[in-house]
Amino acid sequence: MSPRHSAAEAMQTRDAILDRSVAIASAEGLEGLTIGRLAAELGMSKSGVIGHFGSKEALQLAVLDRAGEVFRTEVWEPVRATPPGLPRLRALCEEWISYLERGVFPGGCFFVAAAHEFDGRPGAVRDAVEARFDAWRGRLVKEAGRAAEAGDLPDGTEPEQLAFELMGVVMAANHAVQLHRDPQAPARARRAVRAKLGA
Amino acid sequence: MSPRHSAAEAMQTRDAILDRSVAIASAEGLEGLTIGRLAAELGMSKSGVIGHFGSKEALQLAVLDRAGEVFRTEVWEPVRATPPGLPRLRALCEEWISYLERGVFPGGCFFVAAAHEFDGRPGAVRDAVEARFDAWRGRLVKEAGRAAEAGDLPDGTEPEQLAFELMGVVMAANHAVQLHRDPQAPARARRAVRAKLGA
DNA sequence: ATAGCAATCGAACGTTCGGACGCTAAGGTG
DNA sequence: CACCTTAGCGTCCGAACGTTCGATTGCTAT
Question: Residue limits of the HTH tetR-type domain (chains A, B) (predicted)?
Fold first, then answer.
């Protein structure tokens, strides 16, 4: 084979490793992601793979970053142009459900899976997962707060409580799709969102 | 050491293996459960451990059964005496949330964790997890149906949709407790349930 | 032209995994 | 008492794990 030696080509290699890693980790978890398997599937040596990251934990963190970019592109970007408050909150939920429906990650929501995998083990990966959820929940709470301020939500609606319940709806949909392969799950989730945010 | 050879004592050993297995698997997953670790923690040999089950997969299925017994004892039994329909559905949700709050399993809901761990890998364990969720959801739908028949729920309430949303509420609570260690999560879940089932 | 850097390889490391084997010793049964 | 079953032990195996190391190769700046 022809090894790559320029910095530009090395970045291509790194990208290829991360793409494959996201695919594997989405289906089998961040621990199911093994360096040997990555090397075999990419036609490289194990040391060639790990050389880009230094350790498996650093690879996992990089994979989390890459998955975060995908999530941002697929869920957040399409919604940025929507006016803040209730309209954006509705659009956010729709894109979020659609992201599950389209199977952006073959194993369902990457972060929900990572959360369950790492919530019991202290470490950098767990902290990174928690930080991402905090950021996401913050976004939901912010938009819900704007919607409430604008009077677009029923009186007494607490943004924190609403965000909590929306998380639940999407997690239920994720679960139904992944475990039960229930094709009705996205429709149920949309209906639940509509009950909370109106049509 | 003094090996045990009577059938009764062997059952005690089997019980001890399962108890420890549930504790380990709850915190680290059914795959994180390893025969060598079990043997070390129980002061036995690996062959002494696996001899009771035959294979790791059979052990995992037995652990799932044991966890199911715990769930039944902690969540279902306290509620059996409550009248069917809305009262029982309410009691069910309360016990369900309380089971998360009390930390019956140190890693949160055993089955939610197992579902996320195995939803991507075909096999007997995955099937068993799915069957348990089907049974549980069936119970929720049945009680919701009775409540609707009795006129105790708003007109147009679909039992399937209600069960879906209740699953979401509890999964959100589980997630908030396990990943964020959020002490308010049970209260939020109760509030969400109250919004759906009344006080 | 040459020195240096970085990407990648191949091989080896120590560990851990699930599992298989043969053995011992005790209980239950005739 | 004799026999059979079996709980449990100790040992071993092949595979896979993450990681480390030196060698090789090609690009790039001097």
Answer: 11-71
Bases of chain C below 7 A from a protein C-beta are 6-12, 16-22, 24-28
Q: Do A168 and B165 touch (CB under 8 A)?
A: yes
Residue among A72, A60, A59 nearest A135 (CA): A72
Annotated domain spans of chain A: 3-197
Please provide the average confidence, as pLDDT, over all residues in chain B.
93
Compute the average pLDDT of residues A159-173: 98
A13 touches strand D (CB under 7 A): no
pLDDT digits (tens, 9 = 90+) for B109-149: 999 999 999 999 999 999 999 999 999 999 999 999 999 99
- Tell me the per-residue pLDDT of A35-51, one tens digit each, with 9 for 90 and over: 999 999 999 999 999 99
CA max distance for chain B: 67
Choose the CATH number for B3-197 among 1.10.357.10, 3.40.50.2000, 1.20.1300.10, 3.30.200.20.
1.10.357.10
Candidates B27, B168, B188; nearest CB to A171: B168
